[in-house]
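S.,

Sequence below, as promised.
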Amino acid sequence: MTECNERSMSGVIRSRAERRAIGAKGMGCRVSEAIFGRDAKNLYRGRGTKKIRLILFVLTCLATSLPVFSQTKNEAVEACIAVSSRTALDDQTLGELRQQCQKQTGSLIGRRIAFENAASRNPFSILPHKPNYLLPVTYSDVNEKPYRGSLQGYRFDDIEAKFQISVKYIAVENFFIDDLGLHIAFTTTSWWQSYNSEISAPFRETNYESELIFSYKKPWSLAGLNVTHSSLSLSHQSNGQASELSRSWNRIVGSLIFSRDNVIWNLKAWWRFPEDNKKSSNDPVGDDNPDIEKYMGYGELSALWKLPKEHNIDMSLRNNLRRDNKGAIQLGWSFPFNKQLRWYVEYFNGYGESLIYYNYSVSRVGLGVKLTDWL
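The prediction came back faster than expected:
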């Protein structure tokens, strides 16, 4: 019998009897031991990466024992029927509507669109855009170089909270042509020194992004590939700071979403609106970050993999496509906590985690909950 099954490990598993009672969780421990080694007790004694491994160990035990909550295809079909029935022809039967909606919700993207269309009929509803989440604990070697002029001898903590709030509003459903929607979206992402009482727990960095999105939801084919969703948007992103801490850029962003079975691919490309150079570093007018494309590149490739039991794995990749090869990768894993919330683990490595760090490489791991996911 291993230590994972016999001993108390942060309250996860305490006895042989409890192991029998929670069966599936014991399987999670065996999977964790295969990844982290059988001496799980040593994980708790470590610092840095060992603590990160402990977090993943506990999550693996949890993930194999939680009940599954899902929005099924049938629910998406019913939501589609509720919307379609309002514009259906008088002689169109319920069976015909159901057949039409089953085709429209055949893909994962189609199901999200069906739920969004149903919710948008409520005049009091605002829809989620990007994932909404709270990571109460993240760990990173916080780089203080951009803040040299403002810290005044104080230090940032390496452990801080991170959260994102992202919403959108469907302003027009059929903008001049069928299936072309006009959406207005806003996303804010914050890095909060919530445990740093020495400097009054400030928000170290907050990024704000407003978007005007032309969203085309009708599937079409590109070189034999099934494009399930496409969009073109105007984006303004800023960190709301002044002087030497100010960072911002304005872009046109194109997006194509491809789907195959339980994997969704999202290919983005952008063009930045040029800005005039600053006359001095404190000049309020001019480009805050003229070399941002050398680090952030000109596009991004993302993927979402839906696994059994409502587990989601997501990934984002960027590269500047230059000889100096500066890029970034973000990995996420989420799984159900209850019907509304999901456990969420996030890992980031590379340039551009936030605007203040667009030209600094950052590694970060965080643990928390997702309020809404991509799908």
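The first strand starts at residue 127 and ends at 128.

Coffee later?
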